Amino acid sequence: MTTATRPTTVFVLVNTLLLWTTLAIASLLVWPIYQSESLIVLLVASILAGSVIAIAGARFGWSSATVLLSSIAMFTVLGVPLAVPQEAAFGVLPSIEGLRQLFVGVALGWKQLLTITLPVGTYQALLVPVFTLVLFSTVLGLSLALRSRRGDLAVLAPLLVFVFGIAFGPDYTTRPLLITLTLVVVCLLWLMWRRWYRRRVAIDQLAGASSGGAGGTGQARAVASDHRIFGLRTVISAVLILAIAGGAAAAAAVLVPPEGRRTVLRTTIEQPFDPRDYPSPLSGFRRYLQQPTDNEVLFTVTGLPLDGRVRIATLDTYDGVVYSVGSEEVNSDSGSFTRVPQRFDQSAVAGDEVDLGVEIVGYGGVWMPTLGKLESVEFTGDETTRLRDSFYYNDNGGTGAIVGGLEPGDGYQLRAVVPDQPAESQLGDLTPGSTNLPSLGVLPAELELVLSEYTTGVEGAGRRLVAMLDGLRLNGYISHGINEEDPPSRSGHSADRVTQLLTDQRMIGDAEQYAVTAALMARQLGFPARVVFGFVPTGAAGDGPVAVRGEDVSAWIEVDTERYGWVTLDPTPPVREIPEELPEEPTVVSRPQQATPPQTPDDVAAPDETPLDSTQEEQEELEEWVVILLTVARILGWVLLAIAVLISPFLAILAAKSRRRRARRRAPTALARIRGGWDEYRDAVLDHGFEPAPTATRREVAAKVGGGKAAVLAAVTDRAVFAPADVAVEDADKVWRAVVELNASLDTGATRWQRLKAAISTRSLGGYSVSRLFKR
């Protein structure tokens, strides 16, 4: 529905400026999603384009269909250079591939935006959702403001952008109070101006109509004066209200600031990469040490720092069988794997920034070699697009993954921050951090006993941690159990294997077992700990490439500390000669057998004695019957409890009506009892489905029900209420006997279900004060 008159220039200009202002304020919440200059260009161009369509439609009286087709045409022309700039021909013209991504992004870009790490920049076609929203919101909002009789709904346009910025934005807040208050204030000012403008137009029309008669000029001036006074009062009132509301909101935000991270769409949507779908990389530890993989070049790295450790995967979930990569579905502190369009903000990480180049040679699998905390990654080679589109990263654990796996010839350049680590002398001062890792499934037997042997008499969490590591390094020996000359060393890191490591005469294993054991012990000491599977190249670091071979495989642990965050610790003992195993059992000396003495008569049971087993069997049978009875009683108890829960609301209604009836019948005066009697009858009428008017008199209610007795009761009640003399107690008793009979007559001819429905009806309780119901 559109206005009958064409909008004036002032009306168009003010509405346009206010819409632009509110859209600009709402777009501040969109910035954290993209953080790109291309977003600013997109917002300006789409708002201007949408405004041109809306103003032209209002100026030339376009139909809704014409406005819609014009908007779609503008979307097609501007969509590729603004929302898919990497596919624009010559930077400004749409291309076939760009148009395909543009229209696909309208349908799929919203979900893709939730499964990727922020900020997304101009990655793929992820600018399409915001371009679509802003362009069509501008057209719709300004068209409503200029043409519709419900033009106040135009404020919904910036609110849609505002909601988009919150719902699709990060799970942390960015000046939400200031932005929200500013947007609310400008929207309210917009609505107030529109109200003032409508009133001014109406007054001007009234003044023009009245100016033709006698004294019309004076009346027009008076109306205009009243209009100015009313407008001034409106502005002053609005300013005061906004000031009070803004001050209260600001004070509340200061006194009760928001805590933690907020829940947005990206925190609830299921991520496309779930590490639980893949086996634990630590389970294949020994295969890297077998021939020919042990001497095979898996990948080369360039720019590796001295003593650098290449991470393959971070494992924080242990179920007693394997240590696996955690998932946010199980524990939020495990983090989730999300796509990385541009970069990770690691400005809060204290450490050295490194540039690492990786070339895949013989390595394969979904887990991607990384280092430190990733900031950005750029893929090289022939499969650049495939690698970029299938790369996921978990910033909590520093683990990268390629869906479909890495292949020989793949390569990438990554920039990362290697966090600062405490010196060896500072380890004793470490205190546990606050990370909440997934709970441990099964603890190996003897773990706590051995841990207590290592830490007895040691005070302080950090010193106990150091003592535990020293104990493993001092008592442990390295053997992979692959070659014939190696002492037996079973692979795996299950609870049974860790128990064997700790209870065997010689503690023999490799980094797989020692890392898992140390992580479990650190958890027992109060430190959040996790296992890291990766490679520690033996080649010297330098400018040239370092070849990483299978024999460089390793595993270590990281513990979360209050001061340093995650600290890297290697519990693996040094390689040294393994001593010979001592005999398991000493030689047993044979002793001569002793003759068994004959039985005495006392040892033989009397024939009439009841065997002991008979009593036990009877007791077992008795206990079995008791168990059955208890089970039946428990089931009946739960059934009765469920029935009681189901019928408790109806019992409460019946109890409330009974309490109400008793209170009315026992009122302190005869007049109050008569009034209560009529009220009781009227409530019964309501519960039985009659619908007298809320203001109906007693006679009208009686007429609605019908019957002479109801009319008599109404007349008696009116006479008692309006009579000047006092009412006798006997009259009150007669009224209540009549009420009982009339209420019973209402059930005459009704079915059992109808009577039950009336008994539990709440219609008569709707207007009855709860405080009156339970008074006395």
TrEMBL record:
Native source species: Glaciihabitans arcticus
Source taxon at top rank: Bacteria
Record's keyword annotation contains Transmembrane: yes
Region (Disordered): 568-617
TM stretches of this protein: 12-34, 40-58, 65-84, 123-146, 153-170, 176-193, 235-256, 635-656
Span of the signal peptide: none
UniProt keyword list: Membrane, Transmembrane, Transmembrane helix
Record has Signal as a keyword: no
Domain Transglutaminase-like: 502-573
Pfam families associated with the record: Transglut_core (PF01841)
Xref: SUPFAM superfamilies: Cysteine proteinases (SSF54001)
Protein's name in the database: Transglutaminase domain-containing protein
InterPro entries: Bact_TGase-like, Papain-like_cys_pep_sf, Transglutaminase-like
